[in-house]
Amino acid sequence: MKKPARPTAPDPDFATKVRESFAHQGAMAHLGARLVRIEPGSCEVEIPFRPEVGQQHGYFHGGVIGAIADSAGGYAAFSLAPAGSAVLTVEFKLNFAAPGDGQKLIARGTVLRAGRSLTLTRAEVYAVKDGTETLCAAMQQTVIILPARPGREN
Amino acid sequence: MKKPARPTAPDPDFATKVRESFAHQGAMAHLGARLVRIEPGSCEVEIPFRPEVGQQHGYFHGGVIGAIADSAGGYAAFSLAPAGSAVLTVEFKLNFAAPGDGQKLIARGTVLRAGRSLTLTRAEVYAVKDGTETLCAAMQQTVIILPARPGREN
Amino acid sequence: MKKPARPTAPDPDFATKVRESFAHQGAMAHLGARLVRIEPGSCEVEIPFRPEVGQQHGYFHGGVIGAIADSAGGYAAFSLAPAGSAVLTVEFKLNFAAPGDGQKLIARGTVLRAGRSLTLTRAEVYAVKDGTETLCAAMQQTVIILPARPGREN
Amino acid sequence: MKKPARPTAPDPDFATKVRESFAHQGAMAHLGARLVRIEPGSCEVEIPFRPEVGQQHGYFHGGVIGAIADSAGGYAAFSLAPAGSAVLTVEFKLNFAAPGDGQKLIARGTVLRAGRSLTLTRAEVYAVKDGTETLCAAMQQTVIILPARPGREN
User: Fold this and answer.
1) Is ipTM beyond 0.85?
2) Among A11, D31, D41, D125, fewest CB within 10 Å belongs to which?
3) pTM given for the model
């Protein structure tokens, strides 16, 4: 598709707020996921393999693949949200392209269109095996931006 | 929708194979998910709340909701698969209806149409709070049935 | 899934506004689609077969199946929207269960959860051949409710 | 995402078979859609505006946007299918990014991963108004490849 212009984050502290929000997600910590990159409109999350994130064939579990794809897309959207607002996933759809076979997964989320209320993102998840990346899953997602209100934390 | 006729499982040992497969999923155990019901064409998975499956607002993490929805739909499909075959999720789509706010989640998966190669399922995830169930998410999923071959385990 | 309580339409003129909106959709008329039933939270759209809505194998075209599923879900959502508001589809996902083989298609849309801003729906599309209905496709959809403002028509 | 290597079509007559199949789709002709480009793994379909493809606000109907997105993705997949095989859409998901406001729509479909049996595609639909393209919708799709058998035409 046509490369959209590089977006600007309306909140200058976007990276800090994203990192703080990620750090408060017990599930991401429990799965061993790490936020490795956050830029305006894009985000990268990775997770190393261990049996606790696997399924019965020794690959990454599909639910785990979905969880980091959702997270990468959601934080890409959050990076472009105004200061004080919060984000929630409305829906996401995940297509698997290959088994999650490797030492780690990398999910890269990108904003396709940032709206005042709804933001559309995509993410791709790659399985990294012996240094080679293979497309493992592709996601498409809707995120809602909830306006700032007193006392809300993200 | 019109209630489909109650399906019959071609594999008489469907419940055993589903339970064994579930027991081999490290990720489901790590999240604390339990298979609570398996019948021909339907499956129920639940998971109690604890911070390890939560997000930054104290609700169940969306990725965890997706993981058990995917699992409930996939095992509903597996219950109708011929003996010796395996199943893989091709894709799933999850719409969130309300925050995952409660002491536990229940995901109920149902087969809409079982094909020779592709099976279409739906699942609903309910958050259970003080005994009341609230619809939390709705899923629609495609599962592929991989025919039996020597040496494959599910 | 658990049967939700039968919803109430906040706009007493819901049926009239839905029928008028549908009548203004050139594409629905061009495809030959008819709104056959509208109730609070549910809607039925049907379309007879003719080559103009077919694909290369003589079945209904997938795009036409998607169009009436989207329409049935969207109008189910619109039936529960406050007077003066408008609705727009945010996204929909369609799984095909069988070829659209028959003399007509019937799409039945239902609201799963009506929110102030976002409404979640499902629809099923049946192909009717010699009086027998076969599930042809299943849809899951997000609709946004745009509040009333002076001069907007639906 | 990482740019995949440019794919090679296993069927040297891929362009001819795609054009012939498209020409046999009554629904595409009825909507006024044209196949404007077909290359290995990618396809472009466009459609000019007229009231017959519109909705109640004078924009392109969402169902029409879905129909050409599905078509562009499906023919991108078909371009990489072996000679004699046929393709069917298993499912597609469409997110709307902006109203379909313009003189024409262009849908660009691309194969993300071509499998022996299942192919994963994405498409973007742009509304072209006074020469400017605006992203109108994004699609993600699964297509199944049906192997050649005597007497089947695509």
Assistant:
1) yes
2) A11
3) 0.94
